[in-house]
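ok, trying the design again with the full structure, not the truncated one.
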């Protein structure tokens, strides 16, 4: 995603799904699906104790129903956060599926995104989360919110990678990966400087730039996923520990 595509304020998905422009509506739904499908899938696996195959069907079915019933048009940002609203919609959808006791088939012109369930399942298994260890509904809500933040940051990292490539700053992104994303406790600015045959000052400047751009990109992603400016600033404080600029 090019830097020129990050204006100061982009339409939120809530506004965009109401657009008369079909392309804008499709872009909004793609944005929403990309940010929320993994949290929804993992939440269904954990909250409803469903095996992977059933959770995959329910996740696909939920997003299809979101389109068919235009659930976003019913969202009121004054009453709740978007992710809270979506989580409650997921619960309602799964309960209705249980009551119906059958799996619904969907097709036609329904919008789809590529859902890499294998990767999601690997992440889920890597967390070694036991449903029995989740003591309360509040803990499940917290789990959903943490997975949403993880999804947001993963999208922002990919945006940053493309942004760096378009500006011929691939080394900057590799430094960011090595220092900020790798989780290697032994890494240091000095080791990176030696590895890349550059000065420590160059490492410092590159990481400072990458972190600044990552924050900007993540905030733009976040703004799209909020229903109002007030919600956006609340979410920015929750995610980053400080308000958005």
């Amino acid at each position: 995603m090019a830097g020129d595509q990050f204006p100061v304020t982009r339409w939120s998905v809530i506004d965009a799904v109401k657009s008369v422009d079909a392309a804008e509506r499709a872009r909004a739904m793609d944005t929403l699906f990309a940010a929320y499908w993994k949290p929804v899938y993992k939440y269904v696996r954990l909250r409803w104790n469903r095996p992977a195959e059933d959770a995959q069907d329910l996740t696909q079915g939920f997003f299809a129903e979101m389109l068919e019933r235009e659930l976003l048009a019913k969202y009121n940002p004054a009453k709740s956060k978007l992710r809270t609203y979506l989580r409650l919609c997921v619960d309602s959808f799964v309960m209705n599926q249980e009551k119906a006791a059958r799996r619904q088939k969907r097709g036609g012109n329904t919008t789809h995104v590529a859902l890499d369930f294998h990767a999601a399942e690997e992440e889920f298994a890597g967390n070694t989360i036991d449903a029995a260890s989740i003591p309360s509904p509040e803990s499940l809500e917290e789990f959903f919110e943490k997975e949403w933040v993880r999804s947001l940051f993963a999208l922002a990292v990919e945006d940053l990678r493309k942004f760096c490539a378009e500006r011929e700053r691939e080394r900057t992104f590799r430094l960011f990966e090595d220092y900020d994303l790798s989780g290697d406790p032994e890494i240091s600015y000095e080791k990176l400087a030696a590895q890349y045959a550059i000065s420590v000052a160059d490492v410092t400047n590159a990481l400072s730039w990458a972190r600044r751009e990552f924050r900007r990109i993540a905030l733009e992603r976040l703004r799209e996923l909020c229903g109002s400016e007030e919600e956006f600033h609340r979410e920015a404080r929750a995610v980053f520990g400080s308000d958005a600029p």
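Keeping the full-length input from now on. Residues 11 and 224 are 6 Å apart (CA to CA).
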